[in-house]
Amino acid sequence: MNWLNSQAFVMFGQHIIWSDMIGNILGLITLALGWRRSLLTWPVQFLSGLVLFIAFYGHLAGSAGKQVVVMVVALYGWWRWNRDKDRSADGHINPRFATWRERGAMIAAAAAGTVAVALLFKAYPSLSWDPWPDAYIFVGTVVAMYAQARGMVEFWIAWLLVDVVGVPLNFANGYAFSGFVYVIYGALVLWGMRDWWLRSRKTPQPVLEGAPA
Fold first, then answer.
1. What is the rounded end-to-end Cα distance, in angstroms, of the chain?
2. What InterPro entries does this protein's entry cite (predicted)?
C-alpha cells in the first residue's frame, strides 16, 4: 500500500498524494450523500476513513488513530439511521433541530474534547504537528458526525466551523488536496444546511422537557 503515499500529480505547485486525494474525494461524496439523507453516506464515510488509516498507519500513528474513531462513528451512524423509524415519505430520515439541552451538551463535549485531545497531542508530539487546531478539527468532525447520525440540522454548522480551521491547516501541512476539498465542503455545507433546514420546518419537532403540552 506504499503507493497510497506516493505522488499522484502536482497542482498549483502543491504535491498531491494518492491517499489524500482518494480519501478526501470519498469524504466529499459522503457529504453529498448526507445532503441527500442517503444511508450510503455511512459506508462511504467508513471507506474514506479506512483509506486514510491505511495511508497513515506505520508513520503517522495519531492520524491513523483518528481515522479509527471516524470509522467507529460511521458505524454508529449506519446503525442509527437503520433503526430510525421516523422517516419521510421518500424513506429517508427526517432532519430536525437539536433541543437546547442537546446543543449545550455538544458544545460542552466539543470544548472539553478539544482540550483533552490537544493536551494528549502535546504530551506525545509524534501524534500531531499542530496540537490545538488538529484537536479542534478532529473533535469537531466527530461531533458533526454524531449530530448527523441523530439527524440534527446543526451538524452542518459544526462542519462549517471545522472548515474554518481545516482549510488553512491542510494547506500549511502540505495536504493541498484536502485544503481544496474543504473549500468545496464549505459550498456543499451551505446548500445542504439550507435543504435540511427547510425540511426540518415540515417535520414535527421534539417537545422540550418541561414545556407545556
1. 59
2. NMN_transpt_PnuC (IPR006419)
Cα 37 to Cα 39: distance, rounded to the nearest angstrom: 7
Q: Can you say how many angstroms the Cα of residue 57 is from the centroid of all Cα atoms in its chain?
A: 20
Q: Which residues are CB-neighbours of 52 under 8 A, at least 6 positions away?
A: 19, 23, 63, 64, 67
Cell of 111: 470544548
What share of residues in the chain are helix, strand, coil (percent, to 5)? 70, 5, 25
pTM for the whole structure: 0.81
Residues 196, 180: Cα–Cα separation, whole Å: 24
pLDDT in tens, 56-66: 775 566 677 88
Taking the C-alpha atoms of residue 55 and residue 17, their distance in angstroms, rounded to an integer, is: 10
Query: What count of Cα atoms within 13 Å lies in the side-chain half-sphere of residue 130?
Result: 14
Q: How far apart are CA 16 and CA 182, in angstroms?
A: 15
CA dihedral (46, 96, 103, 101) positive or negative: negative
Whether the Cβ atoms of residue 143 and residue 117 lie closer than 8 Å to each other: no
Q: From CA 14, how far away is CA 70, in angstroms rounded?
A: 26
Q: Which of 128, 180, 210, 198 is nearest to 13 (CA)?
A: 180
- d(C-alpha 86, C-alpha 149), whole Å: 13
